[in-house]
Specification:
The protein is of the alpha/beta class. Helices cover 26% and strands 17% of the residues. It contains 13 helices and 20 strands. The strands form 5 sheets. An 8-stranded parallel β-sheet has the order 11-10-9-8-5-2-1-12. Strand 3 and strand 4 form a beta hairpin. Helix 7 packs across helix 8 and helix 8 packs parallel to helix 10. The structure holds 1-deoxynojirimycin.
Length: 561
């Protein structure tokens, strides 16, 4: 029997080392809020957000309906890539406070029913990290093989990732992202004997680096953290094969230990390939704007000029987008994670990609239509801070701390807007001292005003999260199926069902009235949620439901048999 299983897994191209899927129960109800710590809340008036600031806003976060936060890195950093260039994995960066402040944040969050995920930058360090400084030395030492180095610079660099440098060590090192981020040496999938810089998985360098990774994970979990989002999780093993067997072996090894040591903890991967990530052992793969996730995300929400997708996105008042490719891809992703276990969650956006208000989605109603997608998918929702109030994408935000990669990412990293007070309530600092400027529009979305307004984006998000919580069919257990017309996708319609409970979610981001018919799922369709009941109509005949949606509308219908 075992042999048949092995043969089958090999046939399917999957690693034989795949660990059994381990999912803590709480994950089913998780609703995750992603925070960029430098701009969430400044408690000490220095113009930069901090941990005490975040702690002071936990009630707000809980009251919105979130029960888990993921913070971008808060560790000692050289700040040349927004904290993703770490110089000490065991220390909170002084700009954010102390390790004690993090412990207090975690304990307070737990007392309010909120889990805390940290960001694990596993693939690289800053070039100012003490390990790298040692590794740069000409004499051999304990850290020489913590990074990937060639011997000698007197020949052509073997590839574009090899970096020219003036360090005492005679060789090129490999970067993982920016040049200031040397890649940690976890080894090569199949080291080539004539490539002297390529070491195997079990070589002393990679073995030591894996041990360091476990130590870092254990340190924060022992403090009480509930897990991590792992940066560039697929990048650790170099020259991996197509199926990423090398890096999956590594993560399988980590998860075998992690799941036993911290059975209630989870890990999210920045990978955007659920087949690979979930079989590696991750609990949630992030369907971001790149990789397989990009094939869903980009055509739906971000008009783009790259070759991956058409240049017109679906969630736009022009109403010229298409969904077939995105929905077929999503269906495949859905089937994949249901088969393997775990989830593939599509975040609203992140500190790396534009806010949802981009593409002229400037009105509250457009924002409600777009955000409904992310809150009604069959996976734990992930909302980037500020999206719940429809913060603007600030095109004029200056480059900051390595924000520029293929685009200036400052646009989506500006301070959270809490109120109409000074600096939008983010900080008492002189505005010139702020990490990034706050929105300078005469009126800008902010928490205080939106909390008081039942028609605000924030009220809508809170109500929708409450509905999701009270309605299992809309949660992770409910089935998901595209039921609309794939080629005339205004409105776009999908069903969420669980047992006899049936719902459909109907979207019309276009600035015109549209209508569509689907085969009847029951005798009665009742409007339960949306941006306004008067904008949506459903007529149920013997065989069909006909949805007529006014301009810029979204509706959730309950369908009874
Ligand atoms: C992905 C992170 O989200 C991004 O902000 C960072 O620049 C790179 N990884 C490198 O760590």
């Amino acid at each position: 029997m075992k042999r048949v299983l092995i043969a089958l897994t090999l046939l399917l191209g999957l690693s034989t080392t795949t660990t059994a899927k381990h999912q803590p129960e709480w994950l089913k109800d998780a609703v995750i809020y992603h925070i960029y710590p430098s701009t969430y809340m400044d408690s000490d008036g220095d113009g930069i957000g901090d941990l005490k600031g975040i702690t002071s806003r936990l009630d707000y976060i809980r009251d919105c309906g979130f029960n888990c936060i993921w913070m971008s890195p808060c560790f000692a950093s050289a700040w040349q890539d927004g904290g993703y260039d770490i110089i000490d994995f065991y220390k909170v960066d002084p700009r954010f406070g102390t390790n004690d402040d993090l412990k207090k944040l975690i304990d307070t969050a737990h007392s309010k029913g909120i889990k805390v995920l940290l960001d694990l930058v596993a693939g690289h360090t800053s070039n100012k990290h003490p390990w790298f400084k040692e590794s740069c030395k000409a004499e051999k030492n304990a850290y020489s093989d913590y990074y990937i180095w060639t011997v000698g610079k007197n020949y052509k660099k073997p590839g574009p990732k090899f970096v020219n440098n003036n360090y005492p060590r005679d060789g090129y090192y490999i970067r993982n992202f920016f040049e200031i981020q040397p890649a940690l040496n976890y080894g090569y999938y199949n080291p080539k004997p004539n490539h002297h810089w390529e070491q195997g998985y079990d070589a002393p360098g990679p073995t030591a680096v894996r041990a360091e990774l476990k130590k870092i994970i254990a340190f924060w979990c022992d403090m009480g953290a509930d897990g991590f989002r792992v940066d560039m999780a697929q990048s650790l093993i170099k020259s991996d094969n197509k199926n990423r067997d090398g890096v999956r072996r590594l993560w399988n090894e980590i998860f075998e230990w992690y799941n036993a040591a911290y059975p209630e903890n989870i890990m999210l991967s920045e990978w955007s390939n659920p087949e690979q990530s979930l079989s590696a052992g991750f609990n949630i793969d992030l369907l971001i704007h790149n990789g397989i996730g990009g094939k869903v995300y980009r055509p739906l929400v971000c008009e783009t000029t790259d070759k991956m997708v058409p240049t017109v996105c679906y969630f736009n008042r022009k109403g010229e987008g298409q969904v077939r490719a995105a929905m077929e891809q999503y269906t495949e992703i859905y089937n994949t994670y249901r088969r393997i276990g775990g989830y593939a969650s599509m975040p609203t956006n992140s500190h790396d990609i534009w806010r949802l208000t981009r593409m002229n989605r400037t009105s509250a109603e457009e924002q409600k239509v777009a955000i409904t997608l992310f809150l009604t998918l069959p996976t734990p929702p992930i909302v980037y801070y500020g999206e719940e109030i429809g913060m603007r994408n600030l095109e004029y935000a200056p480059a900051k701390e390595g924000s520029v990669s293929s685009r200036n990412r400052s646009v989506c990293r500006t301070p959270m807007q809490w109120s109409t007070e000074k600096n939008a309530g983010f900080s008492t600092a002189d505005p010139a001292k702020l990490y990034l400027p706050v929105d300078n529009a005469p009126t800008f979305p902010n928490v205080a005003e939106q909390l008081a307004d039942p028609n605000s984006v924030l009220s809508y998000v809170k109500d929708l999260l409450a509905l999701r919580k009270a309605t299992p069919a809309l949660g992770v257990e409910g089935e998901w199926k595209y039921v609309g017309d794939m080629d005339n996708p205004y409105p776009m319609i999908y069903a969420r069902t669980l047992g006899t409970e049936q719902y459909v979610v109907v979207f019309n981001p276009a600035d015109r009235t549209v209508s569509s018919t689907i085969p009847a799922m029951g005798k009665k369709a009742e409007w339960v949620f949306g941006n306004n009941a008067s904008l949506a109509k459903c007529k149920t005949g013997k065989d069909v439901h006909t949805f007529t949606m006014k301009p810029i509308s979204v509706a959730i219908y309950k369908i009874s048999r």
